[in-house]
Amino acid sequence: MSISQISVFLENKSGSLSEFSGVLSDNNINIQAMSVAETSEFGIVRLITDDTYDAATVLKDAGYIARITPVTCATIEDRPGSLHEIISVLNKSGIDVDYMYAFLGGRKENHAHIILKTEDDKKTDAVLKSAGIELLED
Amino acid sequence: MGAYFQEEIECASAGKIKQMQDERLAAQVKHVWDNVPFYRKKLEEAGIKPEDIKGRDDLHKLPFTTKADLRDNYPDKLVAVPLDDCVRIQSTSGTTGKRVVAYYTKEDIDLWEDCCARAIVAVGGSKKDVCQVSYGYGLFTGGPGLNGGSHKVGCLTVPTSSGNTDRQIMFINDLKTTILCCTPSYAAYLGESMKEMGMKPDEIPLKAGIFGAEAWSEEMRNDIQKTLGIKAYDIYGLTELSGPGVAFECSEQKGMHVNEDHFIAEVVDPETGEPLPDGEKGELIFTSITKKAFPLLRYRTRDICILSHEKCGCGRTHVKMTKPLGRTDDMLIIRGVNVFPSQIETVLLKEGYQANYQIIVDRVNNTDTLDVHVEMTPEVFTDNVGEISRRQNELVAALRSMLGIKANVTLVAPKSIIRSEGKAVRVIDNRKI
Ligand SMILES: [Zn+2]
Asked: With a cut of 0.85, is the ipTM above it?
């Protein structure tokens, strides 16, 4: 139970992010969610798009290094406290989160989607499912 | 231990080698003093008379000879015998300027071919072998040198010269060639071609290769050995000194034995010219002590090497040199330390990066800074910032241990390093000195 995320290497210098988003825009790639992890020198841009394969091909042709990673996508209600429910489930099971980000709407109305990467995808999926949390897949 | 071409010389004691070098060096200095006005003038300017040079221990007193000296004396002003006694010339490619023409007497060629024969026997060659010489023949020394050595050993010699890959492969298969002599890049190309033709390494009759005349890495050696199913050996030489066979690799595949009965090797600090001890990296200097027509005193090769007198498992006693680690022309002096782009390249390849890099040297507050920009590769890239940083730190540590000074590493986007005519610009030195 996972969805595909594209990770891209970017240099941390002015203009590189705008150049990157320009490539996606020129090729009609629709971004559903995005996050940037950065150090002082470089960054990793993580993307969820409509068509992962299409986006990865476009980026590769434009000279970017991209990698497709499976990530867990949990659907929660758009209300206070729902994020905490997920985090506490994971915490109780001893699962550490590598990174996470969220987006609203998109695939289900009045709901938010939480993208999660942990050290153990399978265990994460099982734990969340048994807690009654809805997971999205491609 | 294997066979030797001239065991008595190749395995002579250190004392015997020194005695040979002492006598021959003294005689050579007298020979050039008497016959080459250029050398006589140079020695006089340095205040040296032939009788001051009694042996190897006096070598450091002699002035260096440079490539510029050879060009200035083009074509025959350094020849030390009557031209009537010369029987052949060979010449450098001239890609870096005016050609150098090297002259040979009959005896010079005989001794040169001995050196090449030693190299062939050292890789396991004997009269039972078929030796294909795929180096160019002509002015280039590669073909004629190995051809002569192969004759001396008694191999069936196949003088294919370079090029015409289909014909090379046909002869390897039809004549059951066992020893291949060519440049390492051509060996790699032949290997790839045979692989494409569906030939498996154990179906190829070759057992050994003698590959020289250009720089090659251990990685390349491994690749060639695997695709051709052979042992690949290095050989070193310069047209100025004779040609291939100045030094050659033995069965140990760990450095090349210098033929010390014909050449005295030294390593000096490229800046000061001071001789350096064994194990220290510096510019390789050769003095030819048997060459009659075109003798060279303390010739600066511009190759950076390390010498070692450690006992070798093959039984040979002659000093060993590493393969050239770089050229003095490429050398950077950073915080007083000699740094070569080739060293940085070696570390990058070992750490899983590609050889797409740029070295930026600058001076901030009177201290040199060294920055290495490395292009990110799909192999190194992961979705994890911590993992990329960890590998980056490992690279910094590996560079530090190779260079002896700290280098800052910046990971940059693929294909972002400026290339001019397809070749990356390797070094940017912003220091205003
Ligand atoms: Zn040896």
From this structure: yes
